[in-house]
Q: What sequence folds into this?
């Protein structure tokens, strides 16, 4: 049977080479054309291939429990959806079958681990628990290859278990609300890569009954969140609600009903930890969050970026901080909340540093400590009962795309995000000191959740196995795995968008957070009198005009890659629709700079023609107006594309309903994505230019010129 696959493997090898796959330090599976993520603990190639028929049985243990039956039924669903294989879940089989069993699993695979063994007509997945059996099926699905004689899995034995038992993704929805069906698909995707925790920072995307002002219009109801939680549990994912406290609470304190809880009256960013009303409100919200996520073990109480903490004079916070320090003041809130959560049966997670040996105030017993920075402190934390978890560093706050392969700005010395994540995760995982890992997605800049997927799956790869493939192999196999073997040039596309997002950030001084004084872009001078004007624009913005010219062929290439992949029918094709909307926006931004350059040139032409040929001067002015009109029309077209594309997966951003009006509140952090209540934050810098008003004034001037001179 093996010889029949030679031609297929040769074609796969050619495909891999054509997309620039690095061959150094190849793993056994990658060498055999298999892009399994995360990579298993041990792989033994050999033995008989398992060849699929059009109909197969999925054999389960007699009296299999509901969790194991779900794993079998989900495997059946996916085989039918992806490969059109008709499956029957049964306890007795005499034909070609996949066996899911709790019998005979190696003891060393422990919880969540599994074993896959192939033979002719029979593939056996064994595990000690439901999660392991499910993960075995998810690995098996990634092993399927298409050969000359149909679908098959190469002869092999895989024995696998995780390095880190608690593998979490942070889902930040403060600026967007995805639709329920999208969230379910997201959960299924995470589960397929063995992520087992979703820490959901929902802010106002949950409709609190006790404080109805907090939830945004269209927010998930109690019943909907319970439905999603139970749905996630089937896939061995627990949803952990993240209800921010101390800092990041403008979604609560922007409302007049809660203004009295601010530490500083004029700032909606932070609670006063000495105000009893803070705890009354937070206990209400947290109690509902627990009710909304039945069966979950943890709750996250936030507490990061407490910019305001300790500055309140009238409330006594400033004096208290001078007495016990900011860490001590933070622990007043953390311990009060965490102690109550313990009474309600939840373990608390906080963004604070957890155990600190040099501090008199100690966190509530068992509070997670983010480790890896100080080995002595980490050891003391473990000895004192504070479990260590890995914080996978956030990529950055780049606009609309992530710095996966290329990094600019003040953070450049850390390297690209993937390099940084790979070094950090493997370093921490291989110590054996950590129980958990979280891959964060601080979404300050409006990046669509789909664009975070490479980050999430990087975390999945290296938290499951710290000895996984080298980074070069992982990068290449990710694009094959996630977008399918038909995909073309996707890594090149990511690099193009990655680099161009920095151009977009620099355009019209769009940087609004962490960069200090950013200035303002001006429009070309409006003509006056006998077409007099100040010809400063092309001199002032020469560098950006040149950068804009360079972006155009790059974005044309990006758009071509997207169109080709959509035509090929690749997996996760919605991503390419999103990429097109972003590339079109970046291209339009470049067009705008070039349009403004041409606008000034048209006015210059009119100025020079004025004393020789009034008709020619009028024509140049009319051309100037046409340049502006075309640019505004293009902006409207691009924004319409963005709205249509993004709202396939999201509710309209900042929407109001007949029952409730959306309250938009800006805050101290000045997030790029929070400058406007809707998706127009992406074009807000252009709107601030005032091109519409400029066009009106130019048209008035043209009318005056026509009447005066012609």
A:
């Amino acid at each position: 049977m093996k010889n029949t696959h030679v031609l297929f493997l040769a074609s796969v090898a050619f495909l891999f080479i054509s997309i620039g796959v690095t061959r150094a330090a190849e793993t056994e599976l990658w060498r055999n054309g298999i892009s399994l993520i995360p990579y298993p603990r041990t792989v033994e190639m050999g033995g008989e291939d398992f060849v699929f028929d059009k109909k197969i049985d999925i054999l389960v243990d007699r009296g299999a429990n509901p969790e194991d039956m779900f794993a079998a039924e989900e495997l059946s669903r996916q085989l039918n959806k992806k490969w059109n294989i008709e499956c029957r879940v049964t306890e007795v089989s005499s034909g070609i079958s996949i066996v899911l069993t709790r019998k005979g699993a190696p003891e060393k695979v422990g919880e969540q681990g599994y074993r896959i063994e192939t033979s002719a007509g029979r593939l056996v997945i064994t595990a000690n628990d439901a999660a392991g059996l499910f993960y075995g099926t998810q690995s098996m699905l990634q092993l399927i290859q298409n050969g000359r004689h149909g679908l098959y899995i190469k002869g092999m034995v895989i024995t696998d278990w995780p390095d880190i038992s608690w593998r979490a993704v942070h889902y930040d929805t403060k600026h967007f609300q995805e639709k329920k069906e999208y969230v379910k698909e997201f959960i299924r995707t995470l589960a397929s890569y063995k992520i087992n925790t979703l820490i959901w920072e929902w802010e106002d995307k949950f409709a609190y009954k006790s404080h109805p002002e907090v939830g945004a219009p269209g927010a998930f109801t109690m019943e909907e969140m319970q439905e999603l939680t139970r749905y996630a549990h089937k896939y061995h994912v627990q949803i952990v609600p993240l209800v921010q406290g101390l800092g990041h609470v403008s979604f609560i304190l922007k409302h007049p009903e809660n203004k009295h809880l601010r530490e500083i009256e004029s700032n909606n960013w932070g609670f006063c930890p000495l105000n009893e009303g803070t705890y009354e409100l937070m206990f209400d919200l947290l109690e509902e969050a627990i009710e909304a996520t039945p069966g979950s073990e943890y709750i996250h109480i936030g507490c990061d970026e407490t910019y305001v903490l300790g500055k309140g004079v009238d409330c006594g916070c400033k004096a208290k901080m001078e007495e016990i320090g900011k860490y001590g003041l933070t622990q007043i809130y953390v311990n009060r909340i965490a102690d109550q959560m313990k009474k309600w049966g939840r373990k608390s997670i906080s963004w604070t540093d957890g155990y600190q040996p040099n501090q008199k105030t100690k966190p509530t017993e068992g509070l997670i400590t983010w480790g890896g920075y100080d080995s002595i402190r980490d050891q003391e934390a473990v000895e004192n009962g504070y479990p260590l978890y890995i914080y996978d560093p956030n990529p950055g706050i780049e606009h609309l795309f992530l710095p996966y392969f290329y990094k600019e700005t003040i953070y450049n010395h850390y390297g690209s995000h993937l390099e940084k994540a790979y070094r950090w995760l493997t370093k921490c995982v291989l110590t054996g000191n950590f129980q958990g890992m979280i891959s964060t997605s601080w979404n300050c800049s409006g990046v669509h959740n789909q664009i975070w997927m490479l980050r999430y799956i990087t975390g999945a790869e290296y938290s499951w196995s710290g000895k996984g493939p080298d980074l070069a192999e992982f990068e290449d196999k990710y694009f094959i795995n996630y977008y399918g073997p038909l995909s073309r040039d996707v890594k090149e596309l990511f690099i193009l968008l990655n680099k161009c997002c920095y151009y977009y950030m620099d355009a019209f001084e769009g940087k609004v957070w962490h960069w200090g004084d950013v200035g303002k872009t001006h429009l070309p001078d409006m003509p006056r009198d006998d077409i007099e004007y100040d010809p400063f624009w092309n001199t002032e913005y020469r560098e950006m005009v040149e950068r804009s010219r360079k972006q155009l062929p790059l974005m044309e290439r990006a758009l071509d890659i997207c169109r080709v992949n959509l035509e090929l029918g690749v997996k996760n094709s919605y991503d390419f629709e999103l990429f097109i909307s972003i590339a079109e926006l970046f291209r339009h931004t470049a067009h705008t700079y070039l349009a403004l350059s041409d606008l000034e040139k048209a006015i210059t032409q009119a100025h020079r023609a004025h004393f020789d040929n009034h008709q020619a001067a009028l024509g140049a002015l009319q051309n100037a107006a046409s340049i502006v009109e075309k640019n505004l029309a293009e902006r409207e077209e691009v924004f319409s594309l963005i709205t249509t594309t993004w709202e396939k997966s999201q509710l309209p951003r900042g929407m109001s309903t007949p029952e409730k009006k959306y309250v938009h509140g800006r805050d101290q952090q000045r997030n790029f994505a929070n400058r406007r209540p809707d998706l127009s934050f992406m074009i807000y810098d252009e709107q601030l230019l005032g091109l519409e008003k400029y066009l009106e004034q130019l048209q008035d001037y043209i009318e005056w010129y026509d009447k005066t001179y012609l």
